[in-house]
Amino acid sequence: MVESYEIRTSTKNKQLNYIMPVIPSNYQSPSFLIGGNMQTIYPFLFRKVNGVNYTRERIPTHDHDFIDLDWSQKEHNKLIIVSHGLEGSSDSTYVKGIVKAANLVGFDALAWNYRGCSGEVNNLTIAYHSGATDDLEWVIQHVLQKYDYEAIYLVGYSLGGNLTLKYVGEGRQLSPLIKKVAVMSVPCNLASCAENFKTGFTRIYQHRFLKTLKAKAHIKSERSPHIFDPAIIEKISTIEEFDDLITGPHHGFKNAADYYAQCRSDQFIPSITLPTLLINAKNDPFLTRFCFPYTEASQSKYVYLEAPDEGGHVGFYAPGGNMYWSDRRILQFLLHQ
Asked: Could you tell me if 136 and 161 are in contact, meaning their C-beta atoms sit under 8 angstroms apart?
Protein backbone atom coordinates (compact mmCIF):
# COMPACT_ATOMS: atom_id res chain seq x y z
CA MET A 1 0.00 0.00 0.00
CA VAL A 2 1.40 3.39 -1.02
CA GLU A 3 1.20 6.08 1.63
CA SER A 4 0.50 9.66 0.67
CA TYR A 5 0.89 12.82 2.68
CA GLU A 6 -0.26 16.36 2.25
CA ILE A 7 1.77 19.15 3.82
CA ARG A 8 -0.48 22.06 4.68
CA THR A 9 0.53 25.53 5.80
CA SER A 10 -2.10 27.88 7.13
CA THR A 11 -2.12 31.50 6.02
CA LYS A 12 -1.68 32.50 9.64
CA ASN A 13 1.47 30.42 10.04
CA LYS A 14 2.86 31.74 6.77
CA GLN A 15 2.49 35.28 8.03
CA LEU A 16 4.14 34.43 11.31
CA ASN A 17 7.07 32.81 9.53
CA TYR A 18 7.66 35.88 7.42
CA ILE A 19 7.16 38.47 10.13
CA MET A 20 8.64 36.90 13.25
CA PRO A 21 12.07 35.22 13.23
CA VAL A 22 11.15 33.76 16.66
CA ILE A 23 7.92 31.92 15.95
CA PRO A 24 5.34 30.07 18.06
CA SER A 25 4.87 26.32 17.79
CA ASN A 26 1.74 24.20 17.67
CA TYR A 27 3.42 20.93 18.71
CA GLN A 28 1.93 19.07 21.67
CA SER A 29 3.22 15.72 22.80
CA PRO A 30 0.61 12.97 23.38
CA SER A 31 -0.41 12.62 27.00
CA PHE A 32 1.19 9.20 27.49
CA LEU A 33 4.67 10.63 26.83
CA ILE A 34 5.51 12.68 29.89
CA GLY A 35 8.70 14.71 29.98
CA GLY A 36 11.67 15.21 27.71
CA ASN A 37 13.37 11.91 28.43
CA MET A 38 10.33 9.80 27.61
CA GLN A 39 9.67 11.90 24.51
CA THR A 40 13.27 11.23 23.45
CA ILE A 41 13.47 7.53 24.26
CA TYR A 42 10.09 6.34 22.96
CA PRO A 43 10.76 7.19 19.28
CA PHE A 44 14.28 5.77 19.54
CA LEU A 45 12.99 2.43 20.82
CA PHE A 46 9.68 2.04 19.04
CA ARG A 47 9.63 4.06 15.84
CA LYS A 48 9.87 1.89 12.72
CA VAL A 49 10.22 3.31 9.23
CA ASN A 50 9.63 0.83 6.44
CA GLY A 51 9.97 1.23 2.72
CA VAL A 52 13.22 3.19 2.53
CA ASN A 53 15.56 1.37 0.15
CA TYR A 54 18.90 3.06 -0.21
CA THR A 55 21.39 2.84 -3.03
CA ARG A 56 24.89 3.31 -1.65
CA GLU A 57 27.55 5.37 -3.34
CA ARG A 58 31.05 5.55 -1.90
CA ILE A 59 33.03 8.65 -2.80
CA PRO A 60 36.76 9.11 -2.18
CA THR A 61 37.89 12.16 -0.27
CA HIS A 62 40.78 14.48 -1.06
CA ASP A 63 42.80 12.94 1.81
CA HIS A 64 42.48 9.30 0.68
CA ASP A 65 39.56 8.42 2.89
CA PHE A 66 35.95 7.72 1.92
CA ILE A 67 32.42 8.91 2.62
CA ASP A 68 29.40 6.67 2.09
CA LEU A 69 26.29 8.25 0.61
CA ASP A 70 22.90 6.56 0.79
CA TRP A 71 20.46 7.67 -1.90
CA SER A 72 16.70 7.40 -2.09
CA GLN A 73 15.96 8.67 -5.59
CA LYS A 74 12.49 8.90 -7.11
CA GLU A 75 13.35 10.95 -10.22
CA HIS A 76 12.40 14.24 -8.57
CA ASN A 77 14.19 17.46 -9.48
CA LYS A 78 14.60 18.63 -5.87
CA LEU A 79 17.00 17.06 -3.36
CA ILE A 80 17.32 17.10 0.42
CA ILE A 81 20.72 16.32 1.92
CA VAL A 82 20.35 14.93 5.45
CA SER A 83 23.06 15.16 8.13
CA HIS A 84 22.59 12.82 11.10
CA GLY A 85 23.43 13.17 14.77
CA LEU A 86 26.26 11.96 16.99
CA GLU A 87 26.95 8.26 16.32
CA GLY A 88 23.93 8.11 14.04
CA SER A 89 23.85 7.12 10.38
CA SER A 90 21.60 7.01 7.35
CA ASP A 91 19.89 4.09 9.08
CA SER A 92 18.77 6.17 12.09
CA THR A 93 14.99 6.15 12.23
CA TYR A 94 14.69 9.94 12.26
CA VAL A 95 16.79 10.05 9.07
CA LYS A 96 14.73 7.36 7.37
CA GLY A 97 11.58 9.15 8.52
CA ILE A 98 12.42 12.42 6.78
CA VAL A 99 13.79 10.56 3.74
CA LYS A 100 10.53 8.64 3.29
CA ALA A 101 8.35 11.67 3.87
CA ALA A 102 10.42 13.81 1.51
CA ASN A 103 10.21 11.21 -1.25
CA LEU A 104 6.44 11.20 -0.96
CA VAL A 105 6.09 14.96 -1.44
CA GLY A 106 8.48 15.50 -4.32
CA PHE A 107 12.08 15.30 -3.12
CA ASP A 108 14.90 12.90 -3.79
CA ALA A 109 16.94 12.31 -0.65
CA LEU A 110 20.62 11.83 0.12
CA ALA A 111 21.53 10.69 3.63
CA TRP A 112 25.29 10.89 3.98
CA ASN A 113 27.22 9.01 6.63
CA TYR A 114 30.04 10.74 8.44
CA ARG A 115 33.45 9.11 8.35
CA GLY A 116 33.23 5.92 10.38
CA CYS A 117 29.43 5.95 10.67
CA SER A 118 28.41 3.82 7.68
CA GLY A 119 29.20 0.46 9.27
CA GLU A 120 32.89 0.55 8.46
CA VAL A 121 35.57 2.46 10.35
CA ASN A 122 37.22 4.99 8.07
CA ASN A 123 40.86 4.83 6.99
CA LEU A 124 42.36 7.82 8.77
CA THR A 125 42.96 8.75 12.37
CA ILE A 126 40.52 11.64 11.97
CA ALA A 127 36.80 10.90 11.83
CA TYR A 128 34.02 13.49 12.18
CA HIS A 129 32.99 16.23 14.56
CA SER A 130 30.37 18.95 15.08
CA GLY A 131 32.10 21.42 12.83
CA ALA A 132 33.44 19.20 10.02
CA THR A 133 31.91 21.32 7.28
CA ASP A 134 34.59 20.46 4.73
CA ASP A 135 33.11 16.99 4.44
CA LEU A 136 29.62 18.39 3.90
CA GLU A 137 31.07 20.68 1.23
CA TRP A 138 32.75 17.67 -0.39
CA VAL A 139 29.42 15.84 -0.54
CA ILE A 140 27.60 18.87 -1.94
CA GLN A 141 30.23 19.48 -4.60
CA HIS A 142 29.99 15.82 -5.62
CA VAL A 143 26.24 16.20 -6.03
CA LEU A 144 26.62 19.40 -8.04
CA GLN A 145 29.15 17.85 -10.39
CA LYS A 146 27.45 14.49 -10.94
CA TYR A 147 23.72 15.13 -10.66
CA ASP A 148 21.31 17.59 -12.25
CA TYR A 149 19.02 18.90 -9.50
CA GLU A 150 17.20 22.21 -9.79
CA ALA A 151 17.18 22.86 -6.04
CA ILE A 152 18.97 21.50 -2.96
CA TYR A 153 17.80 21.71 0.65
CA LEU A 154 19.90 20.94 3.73
CA VAL A 155 18.43 19.14 6.75
CA GLY A 156 20.35 18.39 9.94
CA TYR A 157 19.66 16.73 13.28
CA SER A 158 21.51 17.32 16.56
CA LEU A 159 25.26 17.30 15.76
CA GLY A 160 24.27 17.38 12.08
CA GLY A 161 22.20 20.46 12.76
CA ASN A 162 25.15 22.21 14.37
CA LEU A 163 27.36 21.25 11.44
CA THR A 164 24.75 22.47 8.93
CA LEU A 165 24.28 25.86 10.61
CA LYS A 166 28.03 26.34 10.70
CA TYR A 167 28.29 25.37 7.04
CA VAL A 168 25.81 27.96 5.80
CA GLY A 169 27.02 30.67 8.19
CA GLU A 170 30.79 30.48 8.08
CA GLY A 171 31.21 32.63 5.00
CA ARG A 172 31.99 30.13 2.25
CA GLN A 173 30.61 30.63 -1.27
CA LEU A 174 27.41 28.59 -1.34
CA SER A 175 25.89 27.18 -4.49
CA PRO A 176 22.81 29.16 -5.60
CA LEU A 177 21.04 25.81 -5.90
CA ILE A 178 20.95 25.56 -2.09
CA LYS A 179 17.60 27.15 -1.28
CA LYS A 180 16.69 26.47 2.37
CA VAL A 181 17.89 24.86 5.57
CA ALA A 182 16.00 23.05 8.35
CA VAL A 183 17.69 21.82 11.53
CA MET A 184 16.39 20.23 14.70
CA SER A 185 17.52 19.51 18.28
CA VAL A 186 20.72 21.46 17.74
CA PRO A 187 23.38 21.80 20.49
CA CYS A 188 24.11 25.38 19.47
CA ASN A 189 26.37 25.82 22.49
CA LEU A 190 28.59 22.74 22.57
CA ALA A 191 30.43 23.42 25.83
CA SER A 192 27.23 23.72 27.86
CA CYS A 193 25.86 20.51 26.36
CA ALA A 194 29.04 18.60 27.18
CA GLU A 195 28.74 19.81 30.76
CA ASN A 196 25.06 18.87 30.82
CA PHE A 197 25.90 15.26 29.90
CA LYS A 198 27.72 14.88 33.22
CA THR A 199 24.62 15.30 35.35
CA GLY A 200 21.42 13.44 36.12
CA PHE A 201 19.69 11.15 33.67
CA THR A 202 21.65 12.55 30.72
CA ARG A 203 24.58 10.42 31.87
CA ILE A 204 22.66 7.45 30.42
CA TYR A 205 22.82 9.03 26.97
CA GLN A 206 26.47 9.87 27.48
CA HIS A 207 27.25 6.24 28.32
CA ARG A 208 25.57 5.08 25.12
CA PHE A 209 27.50 7.51 22.94
CA LEU A 210 30.81 6.73 24.62
CA LYS A 211 30.34 3.00 24.12
CA THR A 212 30.50 3.29 20.33
CA LEU A 213 32.91 6.22 20.23
CA LYS A 214 35.43 4.35 22.35
CA ALA A 215 34.95 1.14 20.38
CA LYS A 216 35.90 2.96 17.19
CA ALA A 217 38.87 4.57 18.93
CA HIS A 218 40.07 1.14 20.06
CA ILE A 219 39.96 -0.13 16.46
CA LYS A 220 42.10 2.82 15.45
CA SER A 221 44.47 2.11 18.33
CA GLU A 222 45.11 -1.31 16.82
CA ARG A 223 45.94 0.30 13.49
CA SER A 224 47.94 3.21 14.92
CA PRO A 225 49.20 2.32 18.41
CA HIS A 226 51.69 5.20 18.30
CA ILE A 227 48.77 7.66 18.05
CA PHE A 228 45.99 6.08 20.13
CA ASP A 229 46.79 4.75 23.61
CA PRO A 230 44.22 2.04 24.54
CA ALA A 231 44.77 2.70 28.25
CA ILE A 232 43.88 6.36 27.84
CA ILE A 233 40.83 5.52 25.75
CA GLU A 234 39.55 3.13 28.39
CA LYS A 235 39.81 5.73 31.14
CA ILE A 236 37.59 8.22 29.30
CA SER A 237 34.32 8.60 31.18
CA THR A 238 32.69 11.73 29.70
CA ILE A 239 32.10 13.15 26.25
CA GLU A 240 34.14 16.19 27.26
CA GLU A 241 37.09 13.95 28.08
CA PHE A 242 36.70 12.17 24.73
CA ASP A 243 36.70 15.51 22.94
CA ASP A 244 39.63 16.76 25.02
CA LEU A 245 41.82 13.73 24.33
CA ILE A 246 40.65 12.52 20.92
CA THR A 247 38.22 14.71 18.96
CA GLY A 248 40.01 17.98 19.62
CA PRO A 249 43.68 17.05 19.15
CA HIS A 250 43.04 14.76 16.17
CA HIS A 251 41.09 17.41 14.28
CA GLY A 252 43.36 20.39 14.70
CA PHE A 253 42.02 21.87 17.93
CA LYS A 254 44.00 22.48 21.11
CA ASN A 255 41.54 20.67 23.34
CA ALA A 256 37.82 20.26 23.95
CA ALA A 257 37.36 23.89 24.97
CA ASP A 258 38.97 25.11 21.75
CA TYR A 259 36.89 22.68 19.69
CA TYR A 260 33.65 23.78 21.35
CA ALA A 261 34.51 27.47 20.98
CA GLN A 262 35.31 27.23 17.27
CA CYS A 263 32.43 24.95 16.29
CA ARG A 264 29.46 26.21 18.32
CA SER A 265 26.83 27.09 15.74
CA ASP A 266 25.11 30.00 17.50
CA GLN A 267 28.00 32.31 16.56
CA PHE A 268 27.38 31.65 12.84
CA ILE A 269 23.67 32.48 12.86
CA PRO A 270 24.11 36.24 12.23
CA SER A 271 25.92 35.43 8.96
CA ILE A 272 23.29 33.06 7.56
CA THR A 273 21.57 34.40 4.45
CA LEU A 274 19.38 31.43 3.52
CA PRO A 275 15.88 30.82 4.90
CA THR A 276 16.62 28.57 7.88
CA LEU A 277 14.33 26.88 10.39
CA LEU A 278 15.77 25.89 13.77
CA ILE A 279 13.54 23.72 16.00
CA ASN A 280 14.70 23.05 19.57
CA ALA A 281 12.29 21.68 22.18
CA LYS A 282 12.43 23.44 25.54
CA ASN A 283 12.40 20.08 27.34
CA ASP A 284 15.20 18.55 25.24
CA PRO A 285 17.35 16.71 27.81
CA PHE A 286 20.51 17.17 25.72
CA LEU A 287 20.26 20.95 25.48
CA THR A 288 20.78 23.82 27.90
CA ARG A 289 19.29 27.30 28.00
CA PHE A 290 22.30 28.47 25.98
CA CYS A 291 21.08 26.44 22.99
CA PHE A 292 18.15 28.73 22.26
CA PRO A 293 19.55 31.67 20.26
CA TYR A 294 16.59 34.00 20.70
CA THR A 295 18.67 37.14 20.32
CA GLU A 296 20.39 35.97 17.16
CA ALA A 297 17.12 34.83 15.58
CA SER A 298 15.25 38.00 16.53
CA GLN A 299 17.92 40.04 14.76
CA SER A 300 18.03 37.83 11.66
CA LYS A 301 16.02 38.18 8.46
CA TYR A 302 16.62 34.53 7.61
CA VAL A 303 16.77 32.29 10.69
CA TYR A 304 13.46 31.25 12.24
CA LEU A 305 13.66 29.82 15.74
CA GLU A 306 10.80 27.58 16.86
CA ALA A 307 10.95 26.32 20.44
CA PRO A 308 8.06 23.98 21.32
CA ASP A 309 7.52 23.34 25.02
CA GLU A 310 7.72 19.59 24.37
CA GLY A 311 9.29 17.16 21.95
CA GLY A 312 12.45 15.88 23.61
CA HIS A 313 15.60 15.32 21.57
CA VAL A 314 14.83 14.40 17.95
CA GLY A 315 11.48 13.15 19.22
CA PHE A 316 8.28 14.98 18.30
CA TYR A 317 6.16 11.84 18.16
CA ALA A 318 2.82 12.18 16.40
CA PRO A 319 0.22 9.39 16.68
CA GLY A 320 -1.79 8.10 13.77
CA GLY A 321 0.82 7.57 11.10
CA ASN A 322 4.44 7.06 10.18
CA MET A 323 5.18 10.73 9.61
CA TYR A 324 6.17 12.52 12.79
CA TRP A 325 5.35 16.15 13.52
CA SER A 326 9.02 16.97 12.93
CA ASP A 327 8.87 15.55 9.39
CA ARG A 328 5.74 17.54 8.58
CA ARG A 329 7.13 20.75 10.02
CA ILE A 330 10.42 20.50 8.16
CA LEU A 331 8.73 19.74 4.84
CA GLN A 332 6.17 22.46 5.43
CA PHE A 333 9.01 24.95 5.77
CA LEU A 334 10.95 23.65 2.77
CA LEU A 335 7.88 23.63 0.53
CA HIS A 336 6.13 26.77 1.64
CA GLN A 337 7.96 28.76 4.34
From this structure: no
